[in-house]
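Quick start: what a row looks like.
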Amino acid sequence: MSKEQRAQVDAMMRQPRPDGPRSVEAIRAGFKALMAQMIVPGNIRVTRTTLGNRPALEVEPDNGRRAGTILYFHGGGWVFGSPETALSLTGSLVARTGFGAYSVDYRLAPEHPFPAAIEDTLGAYRALLDSGKDPSTIAFVGDSAGGGLTITTCLAARDAGLPLPAVIVAFSPGVDATRTGESMVTKEGVDPIFTREAVEHTGAMYLAGADPQQPLLSPAVHADLTGFPPLLLQVGTNEILLDDSTRLAARARGAGVDVILDITADVPHVFQSFVGVLDEADEALDRAALFLSQRIRGASTAHTSAE
């Protein structure tokens, strides 16, 4: 893969930032501006809707929809981001699989701390089930904080006695609010996006004093993943959250879960967002689309590219 591409992405993400903690408003505006630069496929339709009493984007392929629904949870540290900021990811998966997707605008901290986001994502899943969707045709997919929500929403669904989705795909998931992974130290400085101080700043807004030593906040450390559906974790080596994925994968294996830990070298947090710019992003999304298509009932092979 192109060293030049990786270097360009790394340099882009290392642009100078203001010193000290930024306000919530500044964080949200900066992330929105960054993600507006990402490439969204042209062969999709996007419609505003509601799901489980929350706003959502429905994303569909232009050329006919196949059996299968992606329930997407956007990233943003539970504090920033929206379905719109994740559209390069959601749209790319829709274009590659032919499935439809709903991307949920769950409530954000600090206005709505833990467990508001999980309540909203679980409510969205209930709404899909209540509409008649077969759980064997539903996938939970998310990035960063949203990747964490794929796991915690599945835990909440299991605890509520709901049938579980067919499959989970998580891009660089945040699944350890205790911040005890070794990569929090070993990847400091290597990570072009995050510092420990930054993730603890936004993490504290989501925790709002809650004890991080619990499954719904630190599933990589405390969750029993027994009965979980097949799980694909994609993560880059250049991120302080690397060990969130490696430890979650180990817990999944220990619980007898079908899990693939897909680690890409020399790429940053949620590198898949750079689809169309970074070869590794396109290839990772191709692998994710194949994983989804192989495990959604009634689906055939995945498209290999966003045409």
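That is the whole record. The longest helix spans residues 279-295. The chain has ten helices and eight strands.
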